[in-house]
Write a structure and sequence with these properties.
Layout (H helix, E strand, L loop, with lengths): L29 H15 L3 E13 L4 E12 L7 E6 H15 L19 H20 L1 H4 L2 H20 L3 H18 L9 H13 L3 H18 L2 H18 L4 H13 L9 H8 L2
Antiparallel strand pairs: 1-2, 2-3
Helix pairs in contact: 5-6, 6-7, 7-8, 7-11, 8-9, 9-10
Amino acid sequence: MAEPGRGSEDPNGSDPMTAGGSPGCSSLTTKELQQNWKLAKQKERPVRLLFEIPLSRVVEQLLHKHVVYQIVVMRSGSFDSHRVSVERRYSDFFRLHHKLLEEFDEELEDVVLPPKLLTGNFNCENILERRMALQDYLAKLFATRCVRHSAHFSEFFTEQEQKQAHVLLRAGQFTAALELLKTVLEIQEKLLPWQKSTLTVPALSAIAVCYRDLDEPEQAFSAAQRALPPVRRYGLKPYRAALLELLVDLGYQLGRPVAQLQDELTALRNGERGEVCFRSLKEVVIHKFV
């Protein structure tokens, strides 16, 4: 019988003295074996989202002021080295809650939004307490299955930035638009296990347009290439033709093989003639949030 705590077996169930014939296995210390077990267990943990509201700030405008809260979104149960954040006001939480109540009233019976403060809105202690309460509120929303799969939930974290990015894109401010779109995409990718796989298509398409107009064809091609599979799978026709057209143009520019993409675009246009209005990807993107 193996001595307790000495780790007579590796995480795969084989003897470390003989596994794979590697003599290095026998030199593993108890601490190293425990770390290996810990990593193996972490891989088995279910992935979920964590929300932190570590910071808040008071924004003063001409006639009024308000508090904005920084919301950090990260995954647990898997390696997630990048913490991405957005800022929201209490009124944004309020609108989210009422949208969710319209759809999931019974399911949210035990999920309560922290109430409005009638006085002391800018008191430091009240702001700290509100931060903790809103953080707990987001955790409870995520724990409610119907909510974490709801489009309202994902839009709360991305819609403002996506609209701002499209305003900048229409104004030709592609670098500034890209910064917002990258934040949107990172959050959407964290949400993807619980959202439709088409969630990232608008952001990726807009990113491709920005890179194209910034004369960075490699990045534009890569973004469009990532957007194409879910577009194909779920039949998003306007995006499909526009993405294919962009990929063919960029492919010729970059010296990539594009014959299959060209054939797919030709077949799509022939099959849908008179039924679909074919627009460039930039036109499709711009019309998304008009």
